[in-house]
Amino acid sequence: MYTPFLKVVAQDIQKRFGNDLSEIAIIFNNKRPITYLKKHLADTYGRAIWSPQFFTIQEFFARSSNTEQISPLAQFFYLFELHNALLIQEGEQPETLEEFYPIAEIILSDFSQLDYDLVNIDHIFMELYDTTRIDIEFQHLTNEQQQFIRQFWQSFSIAGHTGIQERFLRIWKRLPKLYKQFKTILAENKQSNFATIYRNLAEGKVDNPDFIKPFKKIVFVGFNALNNVEAQLFQKWQEEGKALFYFDVDHYYLADKQQEAGLFVRRNILQTKLDNALGEPSNIIGLRHDTINLYASTGKVSQTKLLNQILTDKESPEKTSAILLADESLLVPLLQSLPDKKVNITTGFPLTQSPIFGILDLWMHVHQEISHLKKKKIAYQDLETFLNNSLTRVAKEEKKKNQDFIADKQLFEIALTDIHIQSAVLPTFFQPLKSAKDVIPTLIDMLEKLLISLGQDSQIKQIDANLLIETKKVLNQLHLGFSKIPHLSIVFQIGLIRRAITPINSAIEGDPLDGIQIMGLLESRCLNFDNVYILGANEGILPKTASTPTFLPNNLRKAHGLPVLENQDALSAYLFYRHFQYSQGLHIFYNSLVDESSSGEESRFLRQLEFESN
Q1: Does 257 have pLDDT greater than 60?
Q2: Kind plus residue range of the DSSP H or E element containing 607
Q3: Residue 105: which residues within 8 A CB-CB, separation 6 or more?
Q4: Cα(604)–Cα(581) distance, rounded to whole angstroms?
Q5: What backbone phi and psi angles, to 5 degrees, belong to 453?
Q6: How many CA atoms lie within 13 A of 187 on its CB side?
Q7: CA distance readout (Å), 437 to 72, 304, 433, 434, 486
Q8: β-bridge partners, 595
Q9: Does 158 score more than 60 pLDDT?
Q10: Is 459's pLDDT higher than 60?
Q11: What per-residue confidence (pLDDT) applies to 368?
């Protein structure tokens, strides 16, 4: 029986700090482990004590700033106005909102990465057609880093650029100006995002430089991949005797330099020189001879059916259990397949898989036809979808009347004047909009009606209520942004609304200490369970083979120490391997069927374990 990591941390905290923890700050990467550490501290002390203060890293760093946190949508609208102003200066045509939205997401992600890793903006976007200048400008970089920059710019030094290269270079030259103007507009409005707070902290430009003074000790628990800002601050605070670090790591992958799972902790201990408060890690994985149960399912969703059988047969009430989704799209089939047991879900429930999205999506599709294209008829399937959606609550007689009308006349399309719906929650669903300005107010009104309708149920589904409220927030932010831009067509607004609401999800809270815990691999950091069931452990999913879209090419990322695909692999490996340190029952599922979305192969991490361990 292995002692869970957070219990070890709780025992060490008691030895070090005794009973008064009121001036101790404990920092995690995410919120979930806080509940578990509180429980272990309560068990370890066995009586009332002054509690330490708990923060996520972002909450803790935000204490250094008095600025307002700005939403991603508000950042997009700032960027859109600034980018179009730069295009006009260059004599180019401004871009539409919908054209710019996907580009803006990539630009904002790149800007954040450059801030987190303290990259000099003028250096990374420097024009170096003459590659001999690299030796002069980048003397502070190693030969290998200079070589990466040279490789990137040599692809542009060939006589004449291709059309794609020309377009890339035009955006490239614009980015440093865009970055500086974006930061200026945030500062003028006393706003910031987390990336800006991070860079300001590292550069000493914060509103509250003494924000760490109230604490005798800042305890960082379970950190793995650090960005340059974190590494710099952690090192500084350790030297000042302020910081303490608990790394969740095993000798098996830390000592072996070939093991990608130990990459970041090796870097933290050897390069950043952070001390592990727990001393030398134990060699648990290397000494285990346990059986790992591997299940090949015939299809993606059938993994959840297999799991259902195993849980029904094996689960014992006194043991803690977690289902970890390497493939998070399995959440809904999993919820439909689980046996009747208590569950707590940390992974958010996606709006796109709820009947609410079905209604919103149908409304946007219908109004592209009847409000934008001014059509007088809709496809009969659209009316059928509306009548059959559980949220619309059309009376049985009315539903039958409309369906009989379509069947009797054998219609492929139905005229708007022939649709008769009075009893539904949304009686004006098929009424064309009077003007383009009515798109968002109509959608918000629809959400309010759905919320009132759900509120009349004896047991309102918390997930649906959360999703409706989150969607309304996003629509209000869009409405604010749209109000500054005249003459937006209905189809543009619908395109942007669809993009903006697709990522919405709702956290489904249960008891985080009781029942089966369902979460993504990332949320399982620091947590240990007796039984672990990993779903979707396919090559290409664990680890992912696709990298995030970026305007910063791989060679330049390597030269400036920015994350590349290998870092993503190392993080996935760590999140996977750490469960082999503590769990007794290990059950891993993968889809063995070869199709367009699956290679049919289990993750290479499993092959590595089989080859290297006992």
Answers
A1: yes
A2: helix 604-612
A3: 76, 549
A4: 19
A5: -65, -45
A6: 11
A7: 23, 45, 9, 8, 9
A8: 598
A9: no
A10: no
A11: 92
Q: Give, for 22, the enclosing helix (H) or strand (E).
A: none
In the predicted model, is pLDDT for residue 129 greater than 90?
no
CA dihedral 294, 298, 301, 307 (to 10 degrees): -40
DSSP of 589-609, one letter per residue?
EEE---BTTB---B-HHHHHH
Q: Average pLDDT of 577-599?
A: 89
Rounded to an integer, the average pLDDT of 587-600 is: 87
What is residue 412's predicted lDDT score, i.e. its pLDDT?
86
Is the pLDDT reported for residue 475 higher than 80? yes
**What is the pLDDT at residue 131?**
59
CA distance 444 to 439: 9
Report CA-CA distances (Å) from 163 to 89, 126, 156, 532. Answer: 21, 20, 12, 51
Helix (H) or strand (E) holding 173: helix 163-188
Take residue 52 and report the two structure tokens written for it. 């330490």
Give burial (CB, 10 Å; 0-12/13-18/19+) of 346.
buried
C-alpha pair distances (Å), 281 with each of 265, 267, 276: 11, 15, 9
Alpha-carbon span 159 to 110, nearest angstrom:
29
C-alpha angle with apex 380: 375 to 386, nearest 5 degrees? 100
b/e 570-594 (16+ beta carbons within 10 angstroms → b): bbbbbbbbbbbbbbebbbbbbbbee
Write out the two tokens for 598: 């699956």
In angstroms, rounded to a whole number, what is the distance separating the alpha carbons of residues 462 and 352? 16
Sign of CA dihedral 79, 85, 90, 94: positive
Q: What is the pLDDT of residue 453?
A: 87
Tell me: the pLDDT tens digits for 28-46? 999 989 999 999 999 999 9
* pLDDT at position 556: 86
Q: Is 511 helix (H, G, I), strand (E, B) or coil?
A: coil
Lookup: tokens for 350 = 């996606």
d(CA 276, CA 34): 20
d(CA 252, CA 574): 12
